[in-house]
Specification:
- A hairpin with a 2-residue loop joins strand 4 and strand 5 (222-223).
- A two-stranded antiparallel ribbon has the order 1-2.
- Helix 1 crosses helix 10 and helix 9 crosses helix 10.
- The longest helix has 33 residues, at 231-263.
- With 272 residues, it is mainly α.
- It has ten helices and six strands; from the N terminus they run ααααββαααβααββαβ.
- The chain is extended and about 80 Å long.
Length: 272
């Protein structure tokens, strides 16, 4: 392991109130979710835990011909002992490198440490400028003017800046383009459908209500379940709404299965 611990995450770290250092955006999440669900890293962990292939590898003590999966077995540790939210918090912040105090979540998901600014004293330092901008600073200016000039250069090169910041150096990356709510709903539906204690024969409408899944019940500008229409129309509308709820549940479960497959990789959510 590196002697220098990684400290910057692209997304929000699991937190019970403490703001963690990030080097990217914070995903928008519904306000009524439990604290552990405010972090996309929880869903990486949760979907990996539901991956049957990884579970089999773990039961075999890490024996597999796939080098990446063997490394994941080593890096993620025994995730099957992590049951509660508090257990997950302890798992994420457990020190895995006693040399530098690096915690597991940062070892797995944080970006490599790089200097934001480097003084160029040799031409050799300019060999690779893919993720850098070379500027000349007139030291006779004030710090305020220099800072303003740098900001203008960054704005002028916004496209290059955006490309560079989308690159990840994390050992286990998380692709962009998924919201916390979609991951949360997919996980809920998958767990419900996989739980033998739940009533699988229950109508889709009731399942959606139980799981808190909101399905569009509007047809044009008319509420499908609106009072004041004929009994026959209500039955037809309820049938339509039932079908929409069923399709929503199937869609979330299919999406969850893709997430579970994606979790057994070093780039969660890619190709999903």
């Amino acid at each position: 392991m590196s002697l220098k611990p990684r400290v910057f995450l692209r997304y929000t770290a699991p937190s019970r109130g403490v703001r963690e250092n990030t080097r990217g955006k914070r995903l928008i999440k519904p306000g009524n979710l439990a604290w552990e669900h405010n972090s996309i890293y929880y869903f990486y962990f949760a979907f990996l835990k539901r991956n049957k292939e990884f579970e089999k590898i773990h039961k075999n003590g890490g024996k597999t011909r796939n080098k990446l999966h063997k490394q994941m077995y080593k890096d993620f540790g025994n995730i099957y002992k992590v049951d509660t939210a508090d257990d997950f918090y302890k798992w994420f912040y457990e020190v895995v490198n006693t040399t530098n105090g690096e915690r597991r979540g940062y070892y797995l998901f944080a970006e490599e440490n790089t200097d934001a600014i480097e003084e160029v004293t040799e031409i050799a330092q300019l060999k690779n400028t893919d993720n850098t901008l070379v500027v000349k600073i007139n030291l006779t200016n004030t710090n305020k003017n220099i800072g303003s000039g740098i900001r203008q250069i960054l704005q002028k090169n916004a496209a290059k800046v955006d490309r560079a910041r989308k690159q990840s150096t994390a050992r286990y990356k998380v692709a962009e383009g998924r919201t916390i709510n979609t991951l949360y709903q997919s996980l809920k539906v998958y767990d419900f459908e996989m739980d033998d204690n739940n009533d699988k024969k229950s109508q889709a409408i009731n399942k959606c209500k139980e799981l808190g899944i909101i399905v569009n019940e509007m047809q044009g500008n008319v509420n499908l379940l609106k009072d004041g229409i004929s009994a026959n129309q209500i039955r037809q509308n309820r049938k339509t709404y039932q079908q929409r709820c069923g399709k929503a549940l199937s869609r979330y479960k299919a999406q969850a299965e893709k997430y579970i497959k994606s979790a057994l990789s070093d780039n969660f959510l890619s190709n999903t």
